[in-house]
Structures are given as structure tokens and as C-alpha cells.
């Protein structure tokens, strides 16, 4: 796969995204399917860039120096949640706060209301910690 971007830089292949795996909220899935701007293809170049980028970030986890909130979906079927869990386990705990939302699909902020509410609450909590009111 690593040589594909060099040999066929404009090659686009099916991305394999099944919209039903985005969210438990049927309206989110329907909106995605109806979106004229979404397409179901990905270039070999982008796929390689994403894979290499993920490995690179994971290799730098122990030296992470930016306050970060890492939230991810435990039932993500579009990306492997293990990458987020591995980063969280290696990153400095004083800088990186991490939480997996076990029941959620990929679009954690566009989940059904009962699944999205704790995600937004966690984000709000972190933002208030980072930027306290005067």
C-alpha cells in the first residue's frame, strides 16, 4: 500500500464507510446519506497519510506537551478505538485527559441524545478547567 500513492496518486477507492455505523441517531445517518458533498471514496495518498500520522502521534505520546482532551467511541467501527486508548495510556496524565464512551459510535458529538449528553458534559467540564471564569 505504501507505494500506491507514488504510483497512482489520484487513485480513489471505496472508503468502506457504512453510514449506519456513524451514529445511533437515525436523523444523523439520514443527513449523512443525503449530503451531496459527502462521497464514499478515499485516495491511497490520504489513507497512507492517515495511517502514518496515527503511528507518528502514538510514537510521540510520552512526550506530549499540550493540554488535551481525548474523547473517543468505544463502538467505533470506522476507526480502531485501540489507537486512542493506546495514546491515552502512554500520554502524560497531567496534560492529557481521556475518556472512552463505550456505547457510542464514531460521531460522538452527533450521537443520539442520551449518548451525546455525557460527551458534551465532559467537554464542558474540561473547557471550564482549562479556561476558568474570572
TrEMBL record:
Record keywords: Hydrolase
Enzyme Commission no: 3.1.1.23
PANTHER family listed in its UniProt record: PHOSPHOLIPASE-RELATED (PTHR11614)
InterPro entries named among the record's database cross-references: AB_hydrolase_fold, Hydrolase_4, MAG_DAG_Lipase
Transmembrane regions: none
Ranges where the Serine aminopeptidase S33 domain occurs: 4-112
Classification of source organism: unclassified sequences, metagenomes, ecological metagenomes
Name assigned to this protein: Monoacylglycerol lipase
Keyword Hydrolase set for record: yes
The keyword Protein transport belongs to this UniProt entry's keyword annotation: no
Enzyme class: hydrolase
GO function terms (MF aspect): monoacylglycerol lipase activity
